[in-house]
Design a protein that fits this description.
With 269 residues, the chain is an alpha+beta fold. It has a 7-stranded mixed sheet with strand order 1-4-5-7-8-11-12, with no helix packed on it. Strands 2-3-6-9-10-13-14 form a 7-stranded antiparallel sheet. A 3-stranded mixed sheet has the order 17-21-20, covered by helices on one side.
Length: 269
């Protein structure tokens, strides 16, 4: 029987106490009753939460163990794209018919992966652990950057931002933003820029056809022009993107630029 019931069971006669004393006693009894009630609530809450703490602890412990014993982690796409976020924060968008496999010590000792297909990589920065992609014939190494790797037709790497190092058959190429590295089916390498990238060109005492060839190689395009101008001499240093440079060297010969396709330009009189 609790304090409240004990007190209420006392006869009316025995509860004829002075008002002030009665109030003090009641206050003391109510404090004790409330303490008992709160204690029961705390004990009940503890009884509910304790199993949850035990279960949660077992879950996280189990998860940590499963990661530590995992030897490889592979991702593969068939007909649809797939977005993957790796443990180091790197985001990868796999195109259809692509496969990515992580090394067993990925994130702890290395950030090595093997890859086939096409994918966009947004690599989390880590100066201590470079991100290395083994692309079956060449390797791409970065510290933190965004690039696209494509093996579907040719071996191709396009750098969106940051820096990339490409190792291919003993030859190393460093890419700048908006630059592409490509090795075709015959193993011939080349690298080129987006058409809006500004470059420095030395056209001092150079024939027109040689200047055109330099632009074609720099931006991976085809430029058609009237044969009668091929031996005309250009003299000067020019800095600009493809459109600006082409207009500059064509101006003395009154040639106009007509863009036929994305990768083909025609110069007309």
């Amino acid at each position: 029987m609790d304090f409240e019931n004990q007190w209420k069971s006392v006869t009316e006669e025995n509860r004829k106490i002075k008002h002030a004393s009665d109030e003090r006693i009641w206050n003391g009894l109510e404090r004790k009753i409330q303490f008992r009630k709160k204690s029961r609530k705390y004990l009940a809450a503890a009884a509910v939460l304790l199993p949850l703490f035990i279960i949660t602890g077992l879950y996280f412990s189990g998860s940590a163990n499963s990661f530590s014993v995992q030897k490889e982690l592979a991702f593969q796409t068939t007909t649809e794209k797939k977005k993957i976020v790796l443990s180091d924060g790197t985001t990868i968008i796999l195109e259809p018919q692509s496969k990515l496999k992580l090394a067993k010590d990925f994130g702890s000792k290395t950030r090595n992966v093997s890859f086939t297909g096409k994918a966009f990589f947004s690599v989390a920065k880590n100066k201590d652990l470079p991100f290395i992609v083994d692309a079956k014939g060449f390797k791409v190494q970065v510290l933190g950057t965004q690039f696209t790797l494509d093996q579907r037709k040719n071996n191709k790497v396009y750098l969106k931002e940051g820096k990339v190092k490409v190792d291919y058959k003993g030859h190393t190429t460093y890419l700048l933003p908006k630059e592409t590295w490509l090795a075709n089916q015959y193993g011939i390498e080349k690298h080129f820029y987006d058409q809006d990238v500004e470059r420095n060109f030395d056209f001092n005492d150079m024939k027109f056809n040689e200047a055109i060839s330099k632009l074609e190689a720099t931006y991976n395009i085809t430029i058609d022009y009237p044969e009668e101008f091929k031996n005309n001499i250009i003299d000067g240093d020019i800095r600009g993107n493809l459109d600006k440079v082409l207009q500059t060297i064509s101006f003395p010969f009154n040639l106009k630029t007509v863009k036929n396709t994305e990768n083909k330009i025609i110069l007309k009189k």
